[in-house]
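Before the break, one more example. Copy the sequence into your notebook; we will annotate it together after we see the structure.
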Amino acid sequence: MGTASNKWRELIRVSAVDYFTGETLVDSLVYPAVDMRNLSTRYSGISWRDMRQAQRSGKCFFGRDEAREALWKFVSPETIVIAHAGENDLNALRWIHPRVLDTQILHGGQRGLANLSSSILGISIQTGDGHCSLEDAMATREIAIRHVERQLAWNSSTEGSNEPEVDGSTWSAGNIDEVQPEEEDSDDMVDEEYDGEEHGW
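Here is what the structure looks like once it is written out:
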């Protein structure tokens, strides 16, 4: 994410992968439709040169609204959206969604994605120049899958109990009343539907 002239966080790249197959659904730069202070290149890995090239070639979305519409082609109100520090993602998209599984909250609410990827998956991410939102989305998906597998195993070994074993409290995007600037970058999201068309980002 970059920083707009009003100091709010602004979406500059969006990536989404399918929860079940890992297929890339959306992965594109987002040319800001607002005046920008900076692109946070050190952390995002995205420069204005990248943006201009994508704009000239027509290989980017123009503004967060266009990016959000692209995501909504794969997401319904019943879709479970999986994200890490998902409040940041939804705030940047100006999107309130009723069903969110946040992998950060599942693991205590404080651990970063790179830390979880290393400790749970044994995979190092975010080692280059800035974050790759597609890499982050894939890691978030794998962490969610590991949690689901562990939960299913726990349920099957516990007689008379179907209660989920979740670390941390439940977070709902519906609790967002207004959008505020965020300090942390998080462009990774995953979604999952109940009707066989489930996805992850």
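The chain has one domain: 2-192. The mean pLDDT is 83. Try to locate both features in your own notes.
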